[in-house]
Amino acid sequence: MKDILREIGMIARALDSISNIEFKAHDLTKGQYLYLVRICENPGIIQEKLAEMIKVDRTSAARAVEKLEKNNFIVKEADPDNKKIRRIFPTDKGSEIYPFIIKEHEYSNQIALQGLSDQEAEILAVALEKVRNNIEKDWESVKKGHKRVY
Amino acid sequence: MKDILREIGMIARALDSISNIEFKAHDLTKGQYLYLVRICENPGIIQEKLAEMIKVDRTSAARAVEKLEKNNFIVKEADPDNKKIRRIFPTDKGSEIYPFIIKEHEYSNQIALQGLSDQEAEILAVALEKVRNNIEKDWESVKKGHKRVY
DNA sequence: CATATTTTGTTGTAATTGCAACAAAAATTT
DNA sequence: AAATTTTTGTTGCAATTACAACAAAATATG
After folding, report:
1. Predicted confidence (pLDDT) per residue in A80-105, tens digit
2. SS3 for A30?
3. CATH number of the domain that residue A106 is part of
4. How far is B92 from chain A (nearest CA, A)?
């Protein structure tokens, strides 16, 4: 069976590295763009869900959000019906950066798909979604302490 | 155009997280498996090439290799013809772990590809290699300080 | 409805990561 | 052959990352 894991790892690290370098111009430090886009697209989201979405540890998400708040990109608001959770919203400053993040993503996406036919790109996108669904199940399970046997 | 970047990022982080948790049983700390597999498969490789292959910063690779050496998974040897480089080789201890890394990778790969037809998986693998080639060019260029315009 | 479990959040600690700045050897250019 | 540039390596920082361990609120179970 062809190995797709390493390719995915290499692509992801390269893309992340590029984004981190490019978003420094907008005063975002390493990794913050990951959180900020998702908060802009899902205003009112809570930390826990953010971590699940991005696939990072809960405590990493907590600290990333903390820093975004300290730098006024987002605010955390108490929920009227639930004392435990704190809903996260972009500030104006945060919202202003959103289009730049999307532009960057679109550009990288376009570069990534160079030389692929429309059909190949379509199959790729559909396949990746399936792969993500498959892997996220194992991730959640392993994160909770379950041991995989192989 | 369909966005494939986020899916790739999510998959990569989830896979990396799983691997890091699972390889702790073999005394490898975070990220070390990335280097060790490649050293086993390319004995005599130098740090610089490792970093390029894995797509991490040169200094990160340097420190990961340093730690692998300290823990006797690899050794660095002077090159007879070139005083600058130090060739990296797995020790017996390092080589012994290699099959476990491969087993884990194969298992994750198989999970990842569940529900994809052979044809879809084949197209996916080919497409990812193309994407990686596309992205690594930008990565190398951005890393060297070049600004992308978009 | 009381108890147990899950969800959501935090803080302490140890580690990896990457940028900047430096050095020396090698390769290239003039 | 000398001077310049590129390659390869290192060390000092400052930051992100995640595991562990804890707490409190919410939900589920008996």
Report:
1. 999 999 999 999 999 999 999 999 99
2. coil
3. 1.10.10.10
4. 23
